[in-house]
Amino acid sequence: MDNHTTVSTFLLWGFSSFPDLQDLLFVMVFFSHVTILAANVSIIVAVKLNHSLHIPMYFFLCGLSFSETCTAMVIIPRMLVDLLSDSKSISVFECATQMFFFFGLSGNNCFIMAAMSYDRYTAIHNPLHYSTLMTQKICFQLMMAAWLVGFLVSMCIVTIVFNLSFCDSNTIQHFFCDISPVVCLACDYTLSYEMAIFVLSAFVLVGSFILIMISYVFIGSIVMKMPSAKGRYKAFSTCSSHLTVVCTHYGFAGFVYLRPKSSDSFREDMLMAVTYTVLTPLLNPIVYSLRNKEMQIALRKIVNSANRFILQMVNKRTLNI
């Protein structure tokens, strides 16, 4: 951190504006968090245990589920603690760490979705050579590139933000250390810093979105040339789950991070951020489980195995008694 930083702790004001709703919010966020963990872990376990799902599409889906789970773990446990606590303080180092992991993982999510769109393009454009074009090594390299770029950009953003001078209020009008509520507390936040952060954010959001759209433009052109209506439907259906997740993810993220900011927009941004951090991680497993028969079968096997295990444990305890 820069020596000019005079503030040693921040106050996450967040939901303090709604004191009567704190208990209700805690219950809702807690159960949402448990559901996020259970749903995404179920996706990972289902893919791991089912050999028919050991293909690139599900490899990237596992990576996305793991990254979404980590993103939720960075934000939600702290949010739950603050909803029950009178002291909502967070040190500058903790704030920087939370921001680094949140934006690193969020950037990773964007580039994994870009890799997933490329995988769908390859599967539709070259179905006969798909297994040679999307090898395990290439999939792993794409996944590592997504993690590397996401955290490099996040490091740049965090370095810019926490080299500013915080010498006025230390109250962050948010439930976590988001960029805009933190930089508005700085004394020396100039247009050049604002443009640098905007360019880095746009590189992740707009850059990965352009990669996704390029893949889908090519997919669309290939599908429209297919003579069979059944073939066109099958090709589009393989992409529908991914497109649903992409539209929701980029819709919320673009609204929060790419539109012009004002002091009056923080409450609106905070409400959108709740959706982005709590509901979006739920969307990935729900969409893929509802729209994909292979995933439904695999998840059903996991549930049945879990039920059998629980029944066996209950029977053992009953016999012991």
TrEMBL record:
Annotated transmembrane regions: 24-46, 58-80, 100-118, 138-162, 195-223, 235-258, 270-290
InterPro entries for the chain: GPCR_Rhodpsn, GPCR_Rhodpsn_7TM, Olfact_rcpt
One cellular-component annotation, GO: plasma membrane
Segments forming domain G-protein coupled receptors family 1 profile: 39-288
The organism's place on the tree of life at top rank: Eukaryota
Keyword field: Cell membrane, G-protein coupled receptor, Glycoprotein, Membrane, Olfaction, Receptor, Sensory transduction, Transducer, Transmembrane, Transmembrane helix
Subcellular locations according to the entry: Cell membrane
Bilayer disposition of the protein: Multi-pass membrane protein
GO molecular function: G protein-coupled receptor activity; olfactory receptor activity
Role according to the record: Putative odorant or sperm cell receptor.
Name this protein carries in UniProt: G-protein coupled receptors family 1 profile domain-containing protein
